[in-house]
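Progress against Task 2.4 (sequence-to-structure conversion) is shown through the following example record, which the project officer requested during the mid-term review.
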Amino acid sequence: FAPSYQGIETILLDGDLVNFRVAMQGARDNEDVAAYARCAAAQYALIRGFGFARHLRTNVDNQGGTWRGDAVYTISAALPEGLKTIDAEVTVRDCAAQGIPTI
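Structure tokens generated for the chain above:
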């Protein structure tokens, strides 16, 4: 596994709703792309002074070996309700340990 991370685009949709678009090559499957977007969301939450994020959706496409992810998260200071929540600080630490870049 030798991924090439090719960038993150962050789009603030509305207040705490954020869209992350990522691109990479060498992904094994959709989960590698989703992990890249999750790492971006976690770092963004920390940059904005928040500690948590909640995953809403991730769409993944692979064309010609370039994988693209389009993910939407909400960010918040308190642990949000829902099943797909992340602790931003813990996630950023995990991303660094796995060699996945953040913003």
